[in-house]
Amino acid sequence: MILPIRAFGDSILRKVAHDIDKDYPELQTLIDNMFETMNGANGIGLAAPQIGLDIRLFIVDITPLADDEDYEDIAEELKTFKKVFINAQILEESGEEWKFNEGCLSIPEVREDVKRKETIKIEYFDENFVKHIDTFSDIRARVIQHEYDHIDGILFTDHLSALKKKLVKGKLQKIANGDVGVNYKMRFPK
């Protein structure tokens, strides 16, 4: 089932999410619905707060980037990079900061350069509640960091300079008011 994505201005996007356990009601159905929602919106990541749930759950599916010439050096790894992250905790961020033009399904029509570290070490449970501690770099780390921010109540626009925040303020207000054209279901705060 495709779920409506919460738009900028919805208070759920600012909540710090809480852990869940393996008995969370209909967890697999929720995960399936999140993948269907994300794919329907042509996204590569989606966090539970974006669909109105303040739980530490997010998904990523970077497989569409495997055919992108910008990632030909890691194309093989990207072909299968579809993951569920439950109760994730970033243990370490390392390497150089690098800029990348990010967007967000909750903030349509806004894209800005965001600096993030190139490598992360993260502890999480998968959809079967098997614990993992993995290290990711490149675009994989970037997407995970973006989605991880969502479960901590942080949006990519929070990483912008004061000037950039001023420049996008009007666009963000329009989104909060529902004045945006998207081809996926959204729920607006006003």
From TrEMBL:
Q: Does the keyword Repeat apply?
A: no
Q: Which domain of life is it from?
A: Bacteria
* Molecular function per GO: metal ion binding; peptide deformylase activity
- CDD domains the record matches: Pep_deformylase
Catalysed transformations (reactions): N-terminal N-formyl-L-methionyl-[peptide] + H2O = N-terminal L-methionyl-[peptide] + formate
Which residues take part in binding Fe cation? Answer: 104, 146, 150
Active site, per annotation? 147
Q: What class of enzyme is it?
A: hydrolase
User: What cofactor does this chain's UniProt record say it requires?
Assistant: Fe(2+)
Instruction: Note whether Cytoplasm occurs among the keywords.
Output: no
Briefly state the protein's biological role.
Removes the formyl group from the N-terminal Met of newly synthesized proteins. Requires at least a dipeptide for an efficient rate of reaction. N-terminal L-methionine is a prerequisite for activity but the enzyme has broad specificity at other positions.
The name under which this protein is listed is Peptide deformylase
Organism taxonomic ancestry: Bacteria, Pseudomonadati, Bacteroidota, Flavobacteriia, Flavobacteriales
